[in-house]
């Protein structure tokens, strides 16, 4: 009987250890996601989240964003830099004079009209 009790106690101990390990892994994953969200918030100048900050603090200093996710964020950043920013586009519009804008708009409308007429010829 004592052998069965010992086995049961070992089994219970093993279950508790496994649960603690799973909980630690889960906490680590949550902290990684929080770190990524903080990076994205910094990148896009969004308001900080106290909840994410707390999650990172709870997990400690050993939290790193997975390499693949960092690459995605970096690629995203380079794409954004490659494109003209909204401010840059607005400044370009300010630099264009109204006649250029009218000509461009008129040409676009004419082009759309001719394409539509080609596709939808009436009998």
Automatic annotation (TrEMBL):
One of its GO terms (cellular component) is terminal bouton. Pfam families: Synaphin. The keyword Transmembrane helix does not apply. One of its GO terms (biological process) is regulation of neurotransmitter secretion. Keywords: Exocytosis, Neurotransmitter transport, Synapse, Transport. It is found in: Synapse. The keyword Transport applies. InterPro entries: Synaphin. One of its GO terms (molecular function) is syntaxin binding. Belongs to the complexin/synaphin family. This is Complexin 4a. The lineage of its organism: Eukaryota, Metazoa, Chordata, Craniata, Vertebrata.
């Amino acid at each position: 009987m004592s052998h069965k009790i010992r086995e049961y106690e070992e089994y219970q101990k093993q279950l508790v250890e496994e649960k603690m390990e799973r909980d630690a892994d889960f906490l680590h994953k949550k902290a990684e996601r929080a770190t990524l969200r903080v990076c994205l918030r910094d990148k896009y100048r969004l308001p900080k989240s106290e909840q994410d900050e707390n999650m990172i603090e709870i997990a400690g200093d050993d939290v790193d964003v997975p390499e693949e996710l960092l690459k995605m964020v970096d690629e995203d950043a380079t794409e954004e830099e490659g494109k003209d920013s909204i401010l840059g586009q607005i400044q370009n519009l300010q630099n264009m004079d109204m006649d250029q804008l009218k000509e461009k708009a008129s040409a676009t409308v004419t082009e759309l009209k001719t394409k539509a007429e080609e596709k939808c010829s009436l009998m």
